[in-house]
Write a structure and sequence with these properties.
alpha/beta; D-Maltodextrin-Binding Protein, domain 2; 2 domains; ten-stranded mixed β-sheet; 11 helices
């Protein structure tokens, strides 16, 4: 009897082993939810929409966007960590969800609690000045700031954002002092920049492209010069390699996603980023594209956590 029971158990185990790859091979057999953890209509929705459309075409199944906004991306991200790792719930991950929220709130671990599938790319930030300031290069701005003893009023999209963190690293390296302004209303910082009330600031590359006739862009945080800002040098060119940074996006899933699904999806996203029409849409929106495999994406997230934790004055979360 014992031998018979062992044979049954072995047979069941073999069937289960066969069933796992079969499920992954048949995925997706129903619509897939892509959680965008911010309110409708923003940059995250734009990126999510393009990727969802590309994955829908690639896998002949509907990928739909579900907005679960709240707490800077934390609410939607937590919802994904609690979902089944079956490939039917995905997250539009980002520097906000996988770096800023974990470092600030510690609600989850971006390496331990997710399967990080692929990176997409990100929006760089640009140091800009109002024309009334009378500077035309970053070196001229640094010299001006170093001569002044009191902190300069500096506009960004908010404390804890990429713009503020890039500005903080830049200020530390050059020994200058900036007075960050906190705004209650979205876009107020840009309004103050345009009015000259805050003559120095950092904006997204998208805003810099649109406003380059009103503001003077001095340096961009992309790895390469932006096609729509070809005369603006990168921080890297100017001797600041640590300031290569973007508000990046990627695709993640709950921890334990089968490798077969992870790899298929990663390959599909890489192919989408190579598609000329898709590439044109994303680049026109101000994104710098960056393909990474699952292993490369996780390594990148780990490096981002190590890079920004000291800037925010917090401890880097453990990988395990």
């Amino acid at each position: 009897m014992a031998r018979f029971n062992r044979r049954i158990a072995a047979a069941i185990g073999a069937l289960l082993m066969l069933g796992a790859p079969a499920d992954a091979q048949n995925w997706p057999a129903k619509p897939v939810q892509l959680v965008s953890p911010f309110a409708r209509g923003g940059a995250s929705d734009f990126v999510a929409g393009i990727i969802a459309d590309e994955l829908s075409r690639s896998f002949k199944q509907r990928f739909f966007i579900e907005n679960i906004a709240g707490r800077g991306g934390q609410s939607g991200s937590l919802a994904v960590t609690r979902a089944k790792p079956d490939g039917y719930t995905l997250l539009l991950s980002s520097i906000a969800t996988h770096v800023i929220v974990p470092l600030d709130a510690g609600a989850y671990n971006p390496l331990r609690d997710f399967t990080n599938i692929a990176s997409i790319g990100g929006v760089p930030v640009v140091i800009v000045v109002h024309p009334s300031l009378g500077v035309r290069s970053l070196s001229e701005l640094v010299a001006l700031l170093q001569r002044r003893k009191e902190p300069w009023r500096f506009a960004s999209s908010g404390l804890g954002t990429l713009g503020q963190m890039v500005a903080e690293l830049w200020a530390r390296k050059d020994g200058i002092s900036l007075s960050y302004v906190s705004y209650d209303a979205p876009g107020q910082g840009l309004k103050e920049l345009l009015a000259g009330q805050s003559p120095i600031g950092v904006v997204s590359s998208t805003a810099a492209i649109l406003r380059q006739k009103d503001l003077i862009p001095l340096a961009v945080s992309s790895a390469q010069r932006m096609p729509n800002l070809p005369t603006v040098p990168t921080f890297q060119e100017l001797g600041y390699p640590e300031l290569v940074a973007t508000s990046w996006y990627g695709i993640s899933a709950p921890k334990g996603l089968p490798a077969a699904i992870t790899n298929r999806m990663s390959s599909a996203i890489a192919a989408a980023l190579d598609d000329p029409a898709t590439k044109e849409k994303l680049v026109k929106a101000g994104l710098e594209l960056n393909k990474r495999s699952p292993a490369e994406f996780s390594a990148f997230i780990k490096a981002e956590l190590a890079k920004w934790a000291p800037v925010l004055g917090v401890k880097q979360p453990d990988e395990q």
